[in-house]
Amino acid sequence: MQVTETLSQGLKREFRVVLPASELEQRLSGELATMKDRVRINGFRPGKVPVAHLRRLYGRSVMADVVQNAVTEANRKIVDENGLKLANEPEVKFPENQEEIAAALEAKADLAFTVALEVLPAFELADTSDVTITKPVATVEDTDVDETLTRMAKQNAAWESKGDDAVAATGDRVSVDFTGTMDGEAFQGGSGTDIQVELGSNTFIPGFEEQLVGIKKGETRTVNVTFPPNYMAEHLAGKAAQFEVTAKDVLAPGALTIDDELAKGFGMESLDALKDAIRSTLQRDLDAQSRRKLKKELLDALDTKYSFELPQSLVEQEFAAVWSQVVADLKNNNRTFADEGTTEDEAKAEYRRIAERRVRLGLVLAQIGEQAEVKVSDDEVTQALIARVREYPGQEKEVWDYYRNNPQALAQIRAPLFEEKVVDHILSQVKVEETPIAKEDLFRDEDEAAKPAAESAAEPA
With CB atoms 3.0 to 4.6 Å apart as the test, which of 101, 238, 318, 411 could cross-link to 229 if both were Cys? Predict the structure, then answer.
């Protein structure tokens, strides 16, 4: 096997690999000789099948395996002998001349192919001792706990009928039967019996609850609504409909009781224990948001310290993932780029910069983690996988088997664990200043931060 480098431009490399016909013949003969002792063919005793006969029967398929093994060997040889770190899988190109390929598969001519690849950039890690970042810190207030308790008590409260002549008001619950039509025709999913509608909850189609305010038990009303453009049932999205709604009862929420009995209903020993659990849960949410903001500021600081050539294959891969999410979000919300105050070309340019940032930061974090010998144990991956499996009740085995049998999917479990450990390592080397902040300010601009952009690095890490 002869390997010759034919291109070295930036991060791109290309090699020409030649397998002489004599070597192809030697590899093929070796494989057929090994097969002779294993194959069973009628008319021949075990191990006595002539190699020439095997060649007539299996020569072409065995040669295909020989070529595939040679490609794998060539890729490994190129990487090992040149000390390369690949950005992506090598691209192998065979000759387009079919006669040339056919002759090589019969070991009557040399087989030549090219291996094109892109390598990871080499760069020095920047000094981060001068980096100072702010960690916003918010604390759960007693009023936050009380609001949550009130909401839980309301959800747990009994509903009581207001009587035959009572009028439904916002905050009441109306038990209804309804039949929906479009252009006079009933449609699938448009009917319901004994449906509980809480007026003011905004859980039904816009306009539906408002038109039931003032209804009495036994009364029938025609409710006119239009399904939202992004309604999950596409055949209904954006369409007008009429509902004949009959109120079977009007109910008001019972008295809110916040005591030990309420706590026991939620599996707690006492009201104080429930309050402690609520406070702990709310604080975890605040701490998680604080971590997100801290991490974003850290990545922003790192991004200013690095500028190097990026593997375009990784950029294109990242951009494709981000862009598909952007397009899907617009479609689901029935919006256009004009509605967002931009054009498709401007949006593409913006999200390409985002993709470049994510790839660059991913490579930086990967190298920092490698140099710091950051490791993610198999046990940590297993625990994270168990948490992921629990998100799919009833499908636990299928999800578990999918990840366990799919190395790339399992890598998606390991990657964020590695990234968080690297972030912790960097945080230990920079100056972190804690600043008290109100809960409202902590979550301000959360929608902007939720763009598929900033806070996480790229999967290639």
Answer: 238
Could you tell me if 82 and 212 lie in one domain? no
Q: What is the pLDDT of residues 189-232, one digit of tens each?
A: 899 999 999 999 999 999 999 999 999 999 999 999 999 887 87
Q: How far apart are CA 135 and CA 419, in angstroms?
A: 19
DSSP state of 376: -
> For residue 221, what are the CA distances in angstroms to 46, 248, 449?
87, 12, 44
Contact 419, 459 (CB under 8 A): no
φ, ψ at 136 (rounded to 5°): -75, 135
Extract the tokens encoding 321. Answer: 């993932």
How buried is 268 (Cβ within 10 angstroms: 0-12 exposed, 13-18 middle, 19+ buried)?
middle
Number of domains in the chain: 3
Residue pLDDT, tens place only, 236-245: 888 999 999 9
Which amino acid, one-letter code, is at 272?
D
Helix (H) or strand (E) holding 387: helix 378-389
User: Which span out of 45-54, 200-209, 328-337 was modeled with the highest average pLDDT?
Assistant: 200-209
**Residue 114 region by backbone torsions, left for phi larger than 0, else alpha for psi between -120 and 50, else beta:** beta
Rounded Cα distance, 58 and 162, in Å: 85
Same domain? 443 vs 294: yes
Same domain, 294 and 237: no
Q: What are phi and psi of 228, to 5 degrees?
A: -60, 150
Q: How far apart are CA 360 and CA 323, in angstroms?
A: 18
What mean pLDDT comes out for the span 277-293? 96
Q: pLDDT, tens digit, for every residue of 153-187?
A: 988 888 899 998 899 999 999 999 999 999 989 99
Amino acid in the structure at residue 212 = L
Q: Structural domain of residue 111, as residue ranges? A: 2-118
Boundary of a domain, candidates 253, 275, 292: 253
Place of tokens 């239009």: 226
Residues 333 and 428 in one domain: yes
* Domain identity same for 248 and 357: no
Identify whether residues 164 and 105 lie together within a single domain.
Answer: no
